[in-house]
Specification:
The protein is α/β, with parallel strands linked by helices. Helices cover 23% and strands 16% of the residues. A hairpin with a 5-residue loop joins strand 24 and strand 25.
Length: 699
Amino acid sequence: MRMRIPPPHGPRARIQALLALILAGLVVSLLPATGLAGPRPAPAPADGRAAAAAPATMLGGDPRKDSVYFAMTARFNDGDASNNRGGSQHEKSGNAAHKDPMFRGDFKGLADKLDYIKALGFSAIWITPVVLNRSDYDYHGYHGWDFYRIDPRLESEGVSYQQLIDSAHAKGIKIYQDVVYNHSSRWGAKGLSTPTFFGKRDKEWSWYYDKKTEGKEYNPLEENEKGKTYNGDLWSEEEPEGNTCKDWGKPTGESSPEGYKLYNCQWPSPTSGLFPASKYHQCWLGNWEGEDSRSCWLHEDLADFDTEQKSVQKYLTDAYSKYIDMGVDGFRIDTAVHIPRTTWNRRFLPALHDRLVEKYGKEKAQDFYVFGEVAAFVNDKWNRGSVNHSTQFFTWKERKEYSDDDAKASLEMYEYEQKQGPENQPTSTNAFLDGNKYHAPDHSKFSGMNVIDMRMHMNFGDAANAFGNGKDSDDSYNDATYNTVYVDSHDYGPGKSSTRYDGGTDAWAENMSLMWTFRGIPTLYYGSEIEFQAGKKIDCGPTCPLATTGRAYFGEHLEGSVEASEFGRADSATGEVAKTLDKPLVKHLQQLNRIRRAVPALQTGQYSTSGIDGSMAYKRRYTSGDTDSFVLVTVSGAAAFNGIPDGTYKDAVTGDTRNVTDGKLSVEAPGKGNLRAYVLDLPGNPAPGKVGPSGPYLK
């Protein structure tokens, strides 16, 4: 089993999911083919584990075999300057002074550097949301306005989103799309609900409010000299028919930062009545570990969907079915913890499963990789004892029936599971070996959602600490071998740090050596391969230039050409990108990716630390069909392995060969960032021996 998306639970759920699927199919079939203009590149043969897919078809294959490169599309590489846009905060943020518009990178820039990512050894790319956004500072993609349209600031003539997907697939690279179910932009979601806001073109506000032009719509490519886009479709001075906003147009008694008079219903708020209760929640979040974290707004820029409403569920299900039809290979789900697990398990995940089965059949549908952001920024196994706010909780199905009404069901589940507490949650052995033997995992209780390993992420200030915390939590996930594992991201560094990881090159090398050989799917935030912006504040909104943050533009390090026909090796490179590919951590990554691809147990194996003496030492095995792969790993430190199978072991790093006759193998400390991976020679599954050349760390 790969994606392991289970079928809908119970006959009623199956019928409802089927109806949703039929409706989704009708809606998507009627949609215009957004972003499909221009000829598609002819698919080229893809090397690696996934065969080249037909256009608009996911590659397939077990997602654990891939390593993932996380790129913020608008900040990665600029392939087309004509779609660059600075927005209304261009001057204020300081971006103008750096000649660095917030929307700078694009799909063409990403497509142009697919060979760079392949040369690093990555076979999957996680990209930030692609839907049309609308806010003052929306380059990141999390302020969705029209979930059915691709943001034109990302597309170019000849390189639409569809063409990017197909081009990546032609090189054997998957595309994981970041998606948002929890919220829309501050102005609502087109096609679902777009409230009318109060505004007036008087001497104070005429600079801000555009005259309404019949038939004119928001277009982010159309900016005035100050970077402002048309907003005449959003506001009215006259109270609209059916208005539910309280005290429409009355002065609040407060002033804007510019000193202008403010009015009721002028700006987004969940408590004003602007947003309909049938589509949006009506409160501000007060307790991040309380029930309101699932049913209230996080921020004024994030209008919180009431995801327990059928109309909202249909809007989102239909929208994201479109991207499945385009052939994306998986979804990273933003803010997943802020939606009740019952809604995921009863509505969104079953609808996703059914759409995939309809398009690909039951077997290939399992290859679609779903990984949720269930943010828990603590070192506890269970987030301050609250199971509903803990990462691993979302990997499990419901274990009892609840009300047919989704809102009631979410509260019933919340109260029931909170009373059960951490000690009464289900456990699993899916990640663990039985002695030295691999056993068939039991995914019958799997929800359909894998997760980002927040506990390891929080503890990656030190690799050994991350390893220990990861092990401690692994029995509480349905299957931790599917966890997404990273050190830092576009949000936080380890320990909820607001800066990009700056532990030094040796520490980075050690973290990578652990991620690429321990259970889970190793993932790297763009630029970390050269310690890009190490120690810089990850995000400060429009209060400082992007160039000074962890979301800086990376394209200057990618100038020049690069060609790669194999994963983990560049055939040729010129210019700055050649210098980038010569950096020590890049060499380390390339070697790690080659080793991981050569040893199946490092990709999909279960693990154990039983009978092993060592700080970061473990054994892993994967057995399926004709494949049987067994490996002993130690990272940085010495290790002694006891009770292992006798036979010939070959180290994938050095080529050293050991003949074991007494069930014991000892390894001297290879040094910080280095590792040893002794692979057992087995019938039909010979150990690969030394994989690739020695590098700055792996030697």
